[in-house]
UniProtKB/TrEMBL annotation:
Identification of the protein by name: Protein arginine methyltransferase NDUFAF7
Family per similarity comment: Belongs to the NDUFAF7 family.
EC number: 2.1.1.320
Function, in words: Arginine methyltransferase involved in the assembly or stability of mitochondrial NADH:ubiquinone oxidoreductase complex (complex I).
UniProt keyword annotations, A-Z: Methyltransferase, Mitochondrion, Transferase
Reactions performed catalytically: L-arginyl-[protein] + 2 S-adenosyl-L-methionine = N(omega),N(omega)'-dimethyl-L-arginyl-[protein] + 2 S-adenosyl-L-homocysteine + 2 H(+)
PANTHER family reported in the protein's UniProt record: PROTEIN ARGININE METHYLTRANSFERASE NDUFAF7, MITOCHONDRIAL
Amino acid sequence: MNNRNILRLCNRLILPNITSARYKGYKVIERPDPKKFKMPSAADAPSVMEILKEKIRLNGPLTVAEYMHIVATNPTEGYYMKKEVIGEAGDFITSPEITQLFGEMMAVWFFSETRKMGPGKPLQIVELGPGKGTLMVDFLRVLHRLGYESQDLSIHLVEISSTMQNVQASRLCATYKACDIDSPHNCEGETVSGIKVYWYNDLKKVPQAFSWYIAHEFFDVLPIHKFQKTDNGWKEILIEIDEANKLHYRISAKETASVQMLIRPPLDTGDRTELEISARGLGVARQLATRVDQDGGIALIADYGHEGEKGDTFRAFHKHQVVDPLENPGTCDLTADVDFSQLRMAASKTPSDENYAVVLGPVTQKDFLERSQAPVRLQVLIDSAKTEEEKEKIKSAYAMLVDPQKMGERFKFMAYYPSTMAEILEKYPPLGFSSQKSNE
């Protein structure tokens, strides 16, 4: 009997038994119920530093983006997950916390620009990174005066921190509850006047409809990749553990995947030797641009940043002071200046792309507020003050927003409009972005 016949005989004799054994050995394993998952207690959870060092030991050096993501969002020890971080008692303060005028002027701006499109009802207000909810409180006060009722609008907040969600709910809602895990939103509530409020952990889950998108000091905390130009081309800056068991930077020996994916013309042209790119930020910018073009609405981005002239801006804040971002991770705010030139490239209308936003700006916060007639509102607040001390506080707060040496020049505004608005904006210049007075 030749070899081929022997193999055929063996197959007939053996394979049925193997199949039978595999079949009889199969067991149905019950999947765990996500609704019964529990987070470890604070006492049992490792520190952020321990998490980072163990990850480096197992997988090698971290990118700056990986480092920022872990430090900010670790479920038990992440910076934004544990405590309220905004305000005088926190590590930084934002414009809405300084004066009510800031949120009021943004609401007036959205209302004015929406009138160029139509009635703007029904309306979704979508805020990315709502902070303590202060800006939205000021928003709603203005919209009430402008005739918006509870049936005209809903509020959609993109927030990953349950701690901050509770803070926001306490400011905004009369009722508030967590939702089933199968729901697209994590929590929902209702204001005293009956406006529905929803919380999400991702912009993708927010319903697509005519919306006002607000991203105030949101992009600056999104993870960035840092790159250095060397004699051998662009290399990524990584974070590893040194001989003293401390975190430190080093340049990658080889070209990383991030270099190949993110560094493209025109970013790699000219005499730049340092780059910071947020893949997450570019993705969100593209989402906003696509949404306003497909569903209508406007997106307004307000953040501190530049137009591509800076290279190394990664830093940390603790108790309102700049500190080393690699020291005491999880206890300080990690941030980087927003490169508005990159946000423009991610969102601008170009042939063959699916995003079609008309991009305006950036303009400085000083110019945006003054062109939006903020001094008029300032005078009303001053005239309404009962004491000279109150008047001085109002003036001082406004000065903080517009003084070039404080927030006036460092903070910038950028807006996304639907592509169909291009000709209308030529006729009716956009409020805040043009030195011309709007015809509205």
